[in-house]
Write a structure and sequence with these properties.
Elements: E1 21-26, H1 29-46, E2 51-52, H2 63-72, E3 74-81, H3 89-104, E4 110-111, E5 114-115, H4 120-123, H5 128-141, H6 143-157, E6 162-163, H7 169-184, H8 199-209, H9 229-240, E7 246-248, H10 253-260, H11 262-274, H12 276-279, H13 285-296, E8 301-303
Parallel strand pairs: 1-2, 1-3, 3-4, 3-5, 5-6, 7-8
Helix pairs in contact: 1-7, 2-3, 3-6, 5-6, 8-9, 10-11, 11-13
Length: 304
């Protein structure tokens, strides 16, 4: 991110050296901080994604080390290319380090660029928009640094990313968030890998649900105990959860309702789908029914 005059950096919690991040946002503050980047950042937090964003002041002389450490500990890098991105030496340092980390651990790191108010051709240096900024950097940082930054820009510009174009921020951010959640698998339930004979049942349930229909559907999976009903439900949940803003998987319903009561299941459902504040609104089962009916069913959510 562009540090501006205050040389600030921060996180969604803790010090960069102590946390592994899901996402590192690289952006030029004056261009997008107060609008697009701030909205994207908070939507990621709501989705329980651990994201690095500049908030707290770093110690003088430690800015670069802490930023590089945060990049190294992140899984997904999202450079937000704006008109002034290349004018920031901070942004270009970050981008070059992202490319280096990706090269050293290609299976563990991913770069997902956003072309905010520029086109990929601008980042590929096929226009003067970024070239002029690089020429100015060369005077201060030298030829070798400029070439390294040029290579980083051209490399990332080849990656298929998102172009904001004329669509609204909200719809655009939702599509970005959906892709990130799918990559990170943050909502997925644990299922033993390489299960044999589950592909056909999963496809059968997906066909019954018919996600393109736009209808509200209930699918009953029944059978004797121990044949894999819960595993099947989890696998279907993992296939579909990235399509929804909020999701909830309620397992062992009979046992939990007997031991802890229906109200605790209602609270889990509301907490997972609407946030912690909603579960505080219910004191008994009737309250839960009313809140679920009025708030949960009017939103795009899924429950298993």
């Amino acid at each position: 991110m562009d540090m501006g005059n205050g040389s600030e950096a921060g996180t969604s919690g803790g010090e960069p050296s102590a946390i592994d991040y899901d996402v590192f946002l690289s952006f030029r503050g004056p261009d997008t901080r107060q609008g697009f980047t701030d909205c994207l950042y908070h939507k990621m937090l709501e989705a329980n994604i651990c994201v690095f964003l500049d908030e707290d002041k770093l110690h003088v002389g430690e800015e670069i080390d802490e930023l590089l450490a945060a990049i190294q500990k992140s899984k997904i890098y999202i450079p937000i290319f704006s008109k002034g991105y290349a004018s920031s030496a901070w942004c270009l340092r970050e981008l070059a380090h992202m490319v280096d980390c990706k090269k050293s651990k290609p299976s563990e790191k991913e770069i997902m660029p956003i072309f905010y108010d520029v086109k990929p051709r601008d980042v590929k240096l096929k226009s003067q928009r970024y070239v002029s900024a690089l020429e100015e950097h060369e005077e201060k940082c030298g030829r070798q640094t400029r070439l390294k930054w040029e290579d980083a820009l051209k490399s990332v510009a080849q990656i298929k990313g998102w172009e904001l174009k004329k669509q609204g921020h909200w719809k655009f951010i939702q599509s970005v968030l959906q892709e990130i959640v799918m990559k990170l698998k943050t909502k997925d339930k644990y299922v033993t890998e390489h299960l044999v004979g589950m592909d056909n049942p999963v496809e059968a349930v997906l066909k019954l649900l018919d996600m393109d229909s736009g209808d509200l559907r209930f699918v009953l999976i029944h059978g004797m105990g121990g044949i894999g009903k819960t595993t099947l439900a989890k696998m279907v949940f993992n296939k579909l959860n990235s399509l929804f803003n909020q999701c909830c998987f309620l397992g062992n319903v009979r046992e939990l309702s007997t031991s802890f009561g229906i109200i605790n299941l209602q609270k889990q459902l509301l907490s997972d789908t609407l946030g912690l504040g909603f579960q505080d609104q219910i004191n008994d089962v009737d309250d839960g029914i009313k809140v679920i009916y009025s708030d949960f069913l009017t939103r795009k959510s899924c429950s298993f």
